[in-house]
Amino acid sequence: MDKKVSIIIPVYNEEKYLDRCLTSLLGQSYMDTEIIVVDDASTDSSKNIIKKYPVKYFYQNHGGPAKAKNLGAKHATGEILAFADGDMYYDQNYIENLIQPILANQAVGTFSKEVYVANPENIWSQCYNLNLNLDIHRKVGLDFPTEFIGFRTILKREFLKIGGFDNIGYEEDLSLFPKLKKHALSSEKAISYHYNPDTIPDVFLTARWVGRGNKYNVILSLARLVKYSLPTSIVVGFYKSLKYKKPNFFVFKIIWDFGVFVGIVNSLTTNQHAK
């Protein structure tokens, strides 16, 4: 039996990608959906773009994606919550395929392994993937398990029962599992495309957000400061730039690690976890 799906999109300064994202979600083959966009105090033209589309719009003071998703869930009328990103676009059968394990009562939530890089031709996008030891065209490795602790969809009743996402910043989608104690199941043929950072400023801002993530205690955070310090960055960056025959990787590594380093300091000194 079909269930209504509430697609929730937290947005913070996504003007470059929003048109394609919203167009792809409004054109889904699964018809019983609503789209809820939560503007996390964007400072660009995101709001004007969102207002062009038949979606539910909500605004919040800048607090990060976890708070935005939780706000969207409070206003959702669907039985299934699906979390999308403003810098992604989606195959027309994405939602239909993504929720199949839930409709078949095989899982309370799902994720997809078929996430591809939307801009693999860009050198900084390539460096981003190489830094993660991934093929430049894929966001998820071929050997990734079929069960995972990160959720793209979840039954709303289960989500609300555990109080939604914790406000930990980066990778907030991993915060459901410790409370839910159930894995998300991989959905076949749920294809999406995700833009990697494609400019030096984007590389720095993304890295800073990663560093601001609140998943580590003080001791581990201090250890991460060593990992992302300049001497380590120089050694690793030089080695990998030779290994991959990409001189730009050296520049990427210096900028990326500096961004993470700054983010860790932000997290330790100001408890700031949003972008």
Task: Note the main attributes of this structure.
globular, 12 helices, 11 strands, three-stranded mixed β-sheet, 15% strand, eight-stranded mixed β-sheet, alpha/beta, Spore Coat Polysaccharide Biosynthesis Protein SpsA, Chain A, 275 residues
Structural class: alpha/beta
What is the CA–CA distance across the termini? 39 Å
Under CATH at level 1, the class of the largest domain stands as: Alpha Beta
Shape summary: globular
The level of helicity is 40-55%
Query: Which stretches are low in confidence, meaning pLDDT under 50 for 5 or more residues running?
Result: none
Task: Report the β-strand fraction as a percent range.
Answer: 15-25%
Radius of gyration: 19 Å
> Within the largest sheet, what's the order of strands?
3-2-1-4-9-6-10-8
Largest sheet: 8 strands, mixed
Task: Round the mean pLDDT to the nearest integer and report it.
Answer: 93
SSE arrangement, N to C: EHEHEHEEHHEEHEEHHEEHHHH
Number of strands: 11
CATH architecture of the largest domain: Alpha-Beta Complex
At the fold tier of CATH, the topology name of the largest domain is: Spore Coat Polysaccharide Biosynthesis Protein SpsA, Chain A
Name of the CATH superfamily of the largest domain: Spore Coat Polysaccharide Biosynthesis Protein SpsA, Chain A
User: So how many helices?
Assistant: 12
Tally of structural domains: 2
Domain Glycosyltransferase 2-like: 6-154
Organism: Candidatus Ryanbacteria bacterium RIFCSPLOWO2_02_FULL_47_14
Protein name: Glycosyltransferase 2-like domain-containing protein
